[in-house]
Amino acid sequence: MTGAPRAALVAATLLLALPAAAQKDVGEPLEHFLATRTLEGKARSLDDPVARLVDDFNADSLPDVALWQEHDRAQDGLRPVHLYMTRKDGRYAAAGSILADDATLFSVTPRRPRGALLLVCHDGAVARGYEVSAFIVVELPRAELPGACPAGPAAIERLDMARYRANGLQAWMRH
Length: 175
Known about the structure:
This protein is of the alpha+beta class. It has helices at residues 4-17, 29-35, 161-174; strands at 24-26, 50-55, 64-69, 79-86, 92-100, 107-110, 116-122, 125-133, 136-139, 157-158.
């Protein structure tokens, strides 16, 4: 092997040997979420309620956190939901966001051998789907979506933002 083929092989080997990019570590998901911007590029308002869903989004037996605000919506009625995956040491990794439906949000379906699907349902059909493995979230092509929707999401919690405004994050977390 000489010339261009050898150079291509060396370049491919070096590319595969590079370390993966580090995930964004987050101490507290709510603090990180409130520092993000809305779809319009505005700062988040503490007057806009924040909702939280805790579930195991990546099937690693650790509870993960999804956060969103009621008024942050795309034109098609979907809302961005920010996902935070729990690391084994108790910290979180900001895994990005997905678009979810107002009424059903999304449901978590474990996928073997590991990982899970986050399925966004609308009128009984799967509208969008995301594959989650470790800290990676990837939207699935429409052809790979299952036809039926599983049961709805776990209980959605509305956070007490008045308490947060009055006393700060530490008081809110002790609640």
